[in-house]
């Protein structure tokens, strides 16, 4: 059905005059009248009534008015979406992640995508565990999978990296010379948590559940980098992804977490779709899934 008929219905309700509707649509008055009669024929009932020089909607006309507006809005939305897809090198992409994923796993991926699609505006900000899961925003969530999360990939979730959690201690720490470290020994030293990464608390709980040893959690760093610096500056310890500790992190050493198996320290970095993505978001998803997914990367 021709949408112009519904546009005329909406405008008749607005102006109540055929002349004004014809002027807005840049049509001749007979053409507007023709479409009005055609719509009434399509609907099988009278939709317009003339009274005192004004054109009003009948009860039937008023009843279908909301649907007419909805169809017009859908048509406009469809056209805007099609336009975005016709020029994929534009639009915006929103990725939300925790600080560790953003700093150590996501930055190079975003840089590669930006080089290939320079017209797309990319925003990467911190993921809010409280508000974002229920958000109606369209974005991609990048995070370290929590304990118990399914590892299977799907059309809405992609595994981009695997890593292992290690014990991070100062280079002059007594643990540095321990050949057979016992889990209970960790309870003697302050443990640095980083508040913005809730998964660390989960791993601490998992450590206690498996080993029976309780970590002395007394220091909370604002960022992962701050946690590393705190460890390097004193005698505190923390858990940290192994590949995130580089030669630039001087003053710290990496040790296996005592009492935990390889499976217990394994972490998975995933990207997930949150709601229906924008065309730019879908382009990034295609880029990720078909070109740069490499879970076994070191």
Automatic annotation (TrEMBL):
PROSITE patterns, per the entry: HTH_LYSR
Keywords of this entry: DNA-binding, Transcription, Transcription regulation
Family as reported in the entry's similarity comment: Belongs to the LysR transcriptional regulatory family.
A molecular function GO annotation: transcription cis-regulatory region binding
InterPro entries documented for this protein: LysR_HTH_N (IPR000847), LysR_subst-bd (IPR005119), WH-like_DNA-bd_sf (IPR036388), WH_DNA-bd_sf (IPR036390)
Domain HTH lysR-type: 1-58
The protein's name in its UniProt record: LysR family transcriptional regulator
Listed SUPFAM superfamilies: Periplasmic binding protein-like II, Winged helix' DNA-binding domain
């Amino acid at each position: 059905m021709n949408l112009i008929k519904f546009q005329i219905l909406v405008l008749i309700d607005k102006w109540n005059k055929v002349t004004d509707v014809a002027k807005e649509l840049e049509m001749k008055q007979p053409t507007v009248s023709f479409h009005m009669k055609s719509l009434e024929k399509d609907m099988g009932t009278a939709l317009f009534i003339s009274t005192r020089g004004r054109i009003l909607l009948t009860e039937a006309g008023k009843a279908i008015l909301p649907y007419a507006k909805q169809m017009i809005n859908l048509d406009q939305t469809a056209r805007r979406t099609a336009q975005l897809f016709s020029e994929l090198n534009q639009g915006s992409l929103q990725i939300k992640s925790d600080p560790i994923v953003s700093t150590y796993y996501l930055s190079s991926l975003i840089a590669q995508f930006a080089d290939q699609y320079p017209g797309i505006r990319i925003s990467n900000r911190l993921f809010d565990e409280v508000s974002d899961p229920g958000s109606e925003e369209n974005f991609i969530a990048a995070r370290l999978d929590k304990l118990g999360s399914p590892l299977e990939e799907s059309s809405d979730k992609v595994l981009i990296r695997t890593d292992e959690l290690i014990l991070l201690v100062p280079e002059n720490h007594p643990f540095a010379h321990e050949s057979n470290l016992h889990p209970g020994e960790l309870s003697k030293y302050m443990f640095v948590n980083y508040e913005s990464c809730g998964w660390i608390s989960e791993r601490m709980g998992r450590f206690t559940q498996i080993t029976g040893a309780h970590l002395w959690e007394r220091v909370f760093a604002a960022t992962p980098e701050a946690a590393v610096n705190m460890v390097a500056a004193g005698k505190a310890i923390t858990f940290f992804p192994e590949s995130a500790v580089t030669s630039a992190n001087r003053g710290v050493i990496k040790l296996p977490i005592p009492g935990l198996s390889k499976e217990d320290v394994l972490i998975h970095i995933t990207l997930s779709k949150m709601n229906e993505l924008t065309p730019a978001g879908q382009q990034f998803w295609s880029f990720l899934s078909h070109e740069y997914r490499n879970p076994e990367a070191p």
